[in-house]
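hey so i finally got around to running the thing on that chain from the lab meeting. sorry it took forever, my laptop kept dying and i had to restart like 3 times. anyway pasting the input first so we r on the same page abt which one it is
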Amino acid sequence: MILIIDDDSAIRSSLSFMLKRAGYEVKAVGSPRETMEVVRAEAPQLMLMDMNFTLSTSGDEGLTLLKQVKLFRPEVPVILMTAWGSIQLAVQGMQAGAFDFITKPWHNAALLQRIETALQLAQSSSPADDELSGSLDRSHIVGGSKGLEEVLQTVARIAKTNASVLITGESGTGKELIAEAVHLNSRRAAKPFVKVNLGGISHSLFESEMFGHKKGAFTDATSDRIGRFELADKGTIFLDEIGELDLSCQVKLLRVLQDQTFEVLGDSHPRKVDVRVVSATNANLQQMVMEHTFREDLFYRINLITLHLPALRERKDDIPLLARHFADLQVKANGLPGVEFSSEALHYLTQLPFSGNIRELKNLVERTILVSGKTLIEAADFEAQYGKPASPSERVAQGSFAGMTLEEIERATIEQAIGLYKGNLSQVASVLGISRAALYRRIEKYGIRC
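ok and heres what got predicted. didnt touch it at all, straight out
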C-alpha cells in the first residue's frame, strides 16, 4: 500500500487516481495526525509526503512528521513532494532520512519511475550476494579482492532498478568500467550508454553539448545538434568528473535530472527523455557541499546509491591478475609472442605505491613488455622502467605515505623508532605514546625483529 500525505484534496485525488491506474493499492490522508494513525495501524510499502502543510508554510510541520514516521517505520521509503522554490526543504528532508524528492508540478512518468525504484530497492536483500555477483556481466572488470567483490555485489542488486548511482574513488580506479557494468546488467542494456566527461566541457558550451541546439541558435550554430541527453534516451548517461561542473551548470543539470525534461537551444518546446544517470568523481563532494562549491540538492539527486572503488594499494591481491590481463591485451594488439611474469616480477609490482592506480599499472606493464622485448618479464625489467621502490620505512622517514595502508605506516614507524633508539623498547613506547604492553603486541603482530 502507498500512503499519500497532502493537505490539498485535489492533489490527493489526482495522485490516488494515477497510482490506482498503475496497479497500486492506495490510501490518502490530509494531516499529520491521520498519517500517524495509519502508520501505527498499518505498514505502508511507500509514502508520498508533501512538505508544506497550510499550518506551517516554513515546512517545519512536514519535517517533524517525517522524523516521527522514520522513527516508527524506518524501513519504509518516503518520497517528498515540494515546490521548486523549496528544494532546500527537500534537502533537509533527505538529511532526515527521506529516500528521494520530487518537485511540483511533477511528470507522472518520472514519479512512477521513482516509486518503482524505491520499491525495488526496499525489497532487495543480500542473502544471495555470491549468486548475484557470479551471474553479473563483468565486461572487462578484472579482480576478485574483497573490496571489488563488495562493489560488484551492490551493482548486481541495483542494476535492474532505475536508481541514480554515484561512483567515487581515486583517479584510475576503473569508475567507467563500473558504470558500464551498471548499464550492461540493467534493463537498458540494449539502449545507448552515453559517456560525458564534464571536466572537458566549458561553461559556455554546456547547454549545447548536453541539450543540443537548433541551426542559428547562436553565431557558430551552422546546423542542428543533438545533445547528449537526447542521445541517451531510454539508456544510460554517464556523467564523469561531475565534481568539475561549475555552479551555474549544476543548476541546469539539476533541472533535467529532476523531471527529465529539457529545452534545446533555439527551440522553446520542452523535450522529454527517459535516462538513467550514473555519475563519477574523484573529488570529495560532501566537502565541496560544505564549501558551497557543489549544490547539496544536486548531491542528493545523483547519489541515491553510492559505490566507492578501492584504490589499487587496497586490493594488492588483484595486481597479478591485472598485470596478466594487460599483458594479454598487449600481446593481442601488437601480434607479440606470449608473455609471462616471474614470481619475483609479480612480487615487485605488489610493492609499488601506484598512486595512479590501475591506469599506472597498465602503463608500466605495456611499456616494460615493449621496451624489454622479452617473453619472460623479470623484476629487473620492471625496475628498469620504474626504479627501485622505497621501503615502507624509507617512505615514512621521507614523510611520504602514498600507496601505504594504515598498518604498513604503523609497522614502518615502529621499525624506524626501534632503529633510532637502538632497540630500547621503553624509549620507543614512550616516544610513540603507547604502553610497553601495546608495543609488544604490535611487534608480535607484525613480526618485527628487535
